[in-house]
Amino acid sequence: MARNEYYEDGKLVKENCPRCGDTVLADHDDRKHCGKCGYTEWK
């Protein structure tokens, strides 16, 4: 998925990583994960 597909009407649809700030969290079934720093939020 291209990064520009994360935006609708100029607003970000996905969550940004709280550690990195500029990276979008990947949404998995049981967690949200940052591929850059490894930050994980379990659902």
Output the keywords.
single chain; 43 residues; mainly beta; 0% helix; zinc ion binding; structural constituent of ribosome; ribosomal protein
Question: Can you describe this structure?
Answer:
The protein has strands at 7-8, 11-12, 26-27, 31-33, 40-42. The chain has 43 residues and is mainly beta. The strands form two sheets. Strands 3-4-5 form a three-stranded antiparallel β-sheet, with no helix packed on it. The protein has a two-stranded antiparallel sheet with strand order 1-2. The mean pLDDT is 90. Belongs to the eukaryotic ribosomal protein eS31 family. Keywords: Metal-binding, Ribonucleoprotein, Ribosomal protein, Zinc, Zinc-finger. One of its GO terms (biological process) is translation.
Mean pLDDT: 90
Uncertain regions spanning at least 5 consecutive residues? none
Q: Give the N-terminus to C-terminus distance in angstroms.
A: 22 Å
Query: What topology, given as strand order, has the largest sheet?
Result: 3-4-5
Number of strands: 5
- How many helices in DSSP terms? 0
Strand proportion: 25-35%
Order of helices and strands: EEEEE
Rounded to the nearest angstrom, the radius of gyration is: 10 Å
Q: Give the overall shape, derived from the CA principal axes.
A: globular
Question: Main beta sheet: strand number and arrangement?
Answer: 3 strands, antiparallel
